[in-house]
Design a protein that fits this description.
40% of the residues lie in helices and 17% in strands. By secondary structure, the chain is an alpha+beta fold.
Length: 865
């Protein structure tokens, strides 16, 4: 089935944030139209305005569709594309809370990682609500913070209103800053004292206050001084330079705190020491690598807005030389998992070159050395692009010296050399053949008439622009990530994006995409081609204003649902994931009508959006046309009222319709590729279960296994040479020549431990299907708690742990937080290699824990079902 993942929340026409939205279950429906979160415009390069502090580190993914957006300004774009460890990003705009505790409603609230194992059931579900923090002060607040999990503290980044004021008023921040100072003096190089929870609280306070100053109140020099005193104590401690994952976890957040408190000018020596101390021995400690990257991706990028920082660098530009040497000396990282370190060093170096003439004099020759040592294409491409782009954006007066004055044209000509004009569309591409270009053009031409017949518009929305569109197609995801943002100004934590602002006469609409390596049933394997083009058509013919205006009400069910519905229906394909979801009856129609990017995960947005739009077109098209009539005038409140006023009137009929859909009514005419898989060691056995709807019969089967091999057998087996997760795709063709394809992932265990992709939920304690969490740690006698949601029909849950040091026992409980005294399955072998299997578990939230028999760190836990 087609995989969908978290999308990026963007606000067009102003700036855009890189916050992925991921929730596990529905939250309460909106009672009234929602307004987008306030967004603060980024400063111009010459401005002295200070950007708002960074939010927490969150999980992200990069293969799903993304909302329409306006191009990002260089200052914000630089932060959005800043290199981070795979599957992670910084939250840069507030997110609505999903429940009072920030946890899924069906899941117990966050459990303290320091509670005694086997404690009473009430303790197993320690509360983690805003009131728990807002009602405490002094030593009571500090004690509660220290007994809370870091995941619990991270939920505080999203509090607003009276909660924000109750939790983060300056007096409470001072209390925690003073407690941080006390612990910092005796810092042991790990989180044994719960110092990390205090640092995260302070980071959250600065973040929340910046977005809610009216609720929190002002912060003055008293807090700044207290925070600096605590930071000084930490950086003077003997263990702050320990090269270990335990220290790296804490050090990363402390380094970001220097930026949150706007104290970057005071710690140039610390930043130099961290960067100069790095060598390849760090690469065995990913948390320590992350701490090094925290310097590059937080203060050294963001502090350039701070005149104190610029003045300090001008007085002592040694940090500029350190950045230059780092970028030049660590190019061996390029092409590897830690390439982001070298890329970010070049990024920051060029950013600093534009601060003033004094700094430019030191940075300018170093920037030129980096550019001369790299090429646009190949392994060094990412370093070249980041260094060149930032030099062009922030030190434009030297573009002739850098040879970057025509950077956009240079990148386009080098990376996207092929072009076809297709009516009002210009298709530029890296690798599409002439035949592929013609197929894409033909598909888009046909989609135009399909769309107009579907929505029954009366032509373009008056007084808007973007009547032409460029479609840029990269050859693969890696090139999309490397080049797209620098050419088109889009975020890239997605599977393609439409960048447009119809209200701006100078804007050129662009849909940016890439080709998949396997057959995805899109023309020429251009991922999300027809979905993204629907966004463009919807923005021209249905939605007045920019994307910020469009999402001023909960209408994501339409925006994403119609893109999915058109994409599948126009291509004559079955949305197999939507059919699978229909059988679960998870959501009411009235709930889907309230979808926003903040309250919905990718499943609720895409397959359920498809189901809602399909149902409304089939059963109540008049309501859709009435809604669109309002949207086309810019009356989004009026359009929202059309379907919000329905209340629950259609819910029962929608539920019955879902039953029929799952039973086969939603199959497209012709073939639908479906298959089952079973894995034994390194061998996968595949069983075709494809369906032919209507006349004809399936006559051929073609499998690709994700390792370069293929088969035309109906039910093949395939043995992989190495362990890992691969994409298996089946293409079936019937006797009339119609084809359909379906991919899925297969994980095999031959060749050593399997490295599964990082789980994508933003909560670090949330597991998922066929994914892992690395770097788990706990001190002796304590527990590391996790949870997982199992869908109906799960036959086997396998949980494994590996790597790291120490001894960690593994526990499972179907009902409450698992512990050594509350479990139904366990694995307690010596060391960190554990495995347990649960057969025929029921659907719902289930609970895991790692109990520290001795201190453990660096452990990876994986879940497969």
């Amino acid at each position: 089935m087609r995989l969908r993942i978290s999308h990026t929340t963007l606000v067009a026409g102003v700036v855009a944030g890189c916050a992925t939205a991921a929730t596990l279950i529905p939250v309460s429906a909106f009672a009234a139209p929602a307004s987008p979160a306030p967004v603060r415009a980024a400063a111009s390069p010459a401005s002295t305005a200070v950007p708002q502090p960074l939010g927490p580190t969150v999980s992200t993914a990069s293969d799903g569709a993304a909302p329409v957006a306006a191009p990002l300004p260089p200052a914000l774009l630089g932060q959005v594309v800043m290199g981070q460890p795979a599957g992670t990003a910084y939250q840069t705009t507030p997110r609505p809370s999903r429940s009072a505790s920030g946890a899924p409603a069906a899941k117990p609230a966050a459990r303290s990682a320091l509670a005694a194992p086997g404690a009473a059931t009430a303790a197993d579900a320690q509360s983690c609500t805003p009131a728990d923090f807002g009602s405490r002060s002094g030593a009571d607040l500090v004690a509660f913070l220290k007994s809370s999990t870091t995941d619990c503290v991270n939920t505080l980044f999203n509090v607003t209103g009276s909660d924000a004021g109750n939790i983060f008023k300056q007096s409470k921040m001072l209390t925690v800053a003073n407690a941080f100072q006390t612990l910092a003096a005796g810092y042991s190089g790990d989180n044994a004292s719960s110092i990390l929870q205090l640092v995260l609280f302070l980071r959250a306070g600065y973040y929340v206050q910046s977005y809610n100053p009216g609720s929190v109140g002002s912060y003055d020099s008293t807090l700044t001084n207290a925070t600096k005193t605590a930071l000084d104590a930490f950086f003077a401690s003997a263990h702050r330079s320990d090269v270990s994952d335990a220290n790296g976890t804490v050090l990363k957040e402390v380094l970001i705190l220097t930026d949150s408190a706007n104290l970057q000018a005071k710690y140039l020596n610390v930043y130099q020491q961290v960067l100069s101390g790095y060598n390849n021995s760090y690469n065995t400690f990913p948390k320590m690598v992350n701490a090094v990257n925290a310097v590059l991706s937080s203060p050294l990028w963001r502090a350039n807005w701070n005149p104190d920082f610029v003045g300090a660098v001008s007085a002592d530009p040694a940090i500029v030389s350190v950045l230059g040497r780092f970028a030049l000396d660590h190019q061996d990282l390029l092409g590897g998992p830690n390439a982001f370190l070298d890329i970010n060093a070049g990024n920051d170096l060029s950013r600093m070159a534009g601060d003033n003439a004094t700094i430019e004099a030191v940075a300018k020759p170093l920037v030129k050395q980096v550019l001369d040592a790299t090429q646009i294409l190949g392994r060094t491409g990412p370093l070249y692009v980041h260094t060149a782009y930032q030099a062009n954006a922030f030190d434009p007066g030297q573009c002739s010296y850098y040879k970057t004055c025509d950077l956009t044209a240079k990148l386009t000509a080098t990376v996207l050399p092929n072009q076809l004009v297709c009516d009002n569309r210009t298709i530029v591409t890296e690798a599409l053949s002439p035949a592929d270009l013609a197929a894409v053009c033909t598909s888009l031409r046909g989609e135009d008439s399909f769309f107009h017949n579907l929505v029954k518009d009366n032509g373009p929305v008056p007084n808007q622009y973007d009547k032409t569109i460029t479609l840029a197609v990269f050859a693969n995801q890696a090139d999309y990530l490397t080049y797209s943002w620098a050419i088109y100004g889009n975020s890239t934590d997605n599977g393609g994006q439409t960048v447009m602002d119809p209200t701006d006469p100078n804007n050129q609409a662009v849909s940016v995409m890439y080709q998949k390596s396997w057959n995805d049933s899109f023309p020429a394997n251009v991922w999300n081609l027809n979905h993204e083009y629907t966004h463009y058509l919807d923005g021209i013919y249905d939605m007045k204003g920019n994307f910020g205006a469009e999402i001023s009400v909960p209408d994501i069910w339409w925006i994403e649902g119609v893109a999915e519905y058109e994409s599948y229906t126009y291509r004559g394909l079955t949305d197999t994931q939507a059919m699978s979801e229909a059988a679960k009856h998870t959501y009411k129609l009235s709930t889907i009508f309230q979808n926003t990017y903040g309250n919905s995960d990718s499943t609720r947005v895409y397959p359920w959006g498809y189901l809602a739009v399909r149902y409304m077109f089939e059963k109540h098209p008049a309501d859709i046309y009435a809604m669109l009539g309002q949207f086309r005038t810019g009356d989004y409140a009026g359009g929202y009222a059309v379907y919000n006023s329905l209340g629950t009137r259609y819910d029962a009929d929608f539920d019955s319709w879902l039953t029929a859909c799952a039973a086969g009514a939603c199959f497209a005419a012709g073939p639908t590729a479906l298959f089952d898989q079973s894995v034994s060691g390194g061998t996968v056995t595949l069983s075709d279960t494809s369906v032919q709807t209507g006349p004809g019969r399936i006559t051929s089967w073609h499998w690709t296994f994700g390792d370069g091999s293929s088969s035309d057998l109906r039910n093949p087996s395939h043995t992989y040479a190495a362990a890992g997760t691969y994409t298996v795709a089946l293409t079936v063709t019937d006797d009339t020549g119609r084809s359909a394809s379906t991919p899925t992932s297969v994980t095999v265990t031959t060749g050593g431990p399997v490295t599964l992709p990082t789980c994508t939920d933003q909560r670090a304690d949330a597991m998922g299907q066929n994914c892992s969490r690395a770097g788990r740690a706990a001190t002796a006698g304590n527990l590391d708690y996790l949870y997982i949601y199992l869908p109906a029909g799960t036959s086997t849950l396998k949980v494994t742990t590996s790597g790291g040091t120490g001894t960690a026992a593994l526990y499972y409980n179907p009902d409450i937080w698992a512990s050594p005294k509350a479990f139904t399955a366990s694995s307690t072998a010596p060391g960190t290699t554990q495995s347990l299997t649960v057969t025929n578990p029921t659907a719902g939230y289930r609970y895991l824990s790692l109990y520290a028999v001795t201190d453990f760190s660096g452990v990876t836990i994986s879940t497969q079902f």
